[in-house]
Amino acid sequence: MIATCHHTVRVIDVDPPMDVCPSCIEEGGWWKHLRQCLVCGKTGCCDESPNRHASGHYRSEGHEIIRSAEPGEDWIWCFADEVNLRKTDDVWEEVDLFFEAGMWFATQKAEAAGTFEPAPDEVTAEGFPLGEWAAAYRDVHASGELDAEKTAALEGIAGWHW
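Above: the chain's sequence. Below: its structure in token form.
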């Protein structure tokens, strides 16, 4: 889905993110994950970290767009619109990371077991609520609000049923 977020016009080319949270270093604190502001390039810690420097930067500076500074992660977040974004072929798109993660875990399960039949309370070893994920998207489909692309992706999982 093309992004409705208009804050992406503020995104600039920034240097690679730092591998530390400078504010945590200065304060003697620690961080869990790092984020980078795409308006000015500042690196800060995530909201799971005690000091939440990345969101504090948004509140103090008004810089809405951050990206994950974690290796292998390509998502971007707009604080103002509360949406995940990804740029593909020069077009910003909203991304449902919960759906993407669930698709990955569901596909892994279907490939290993030959079918996809999670228990309602099934949680992966990594802590992903696979049973709740399946139920949530079945509910959205039943309401008629699931888009065709997600419907097709789900129906491509071996053993998927509505």
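The beta strands are 34-37, 43-45, 65-68, 76-78, 83-88, 91-95.
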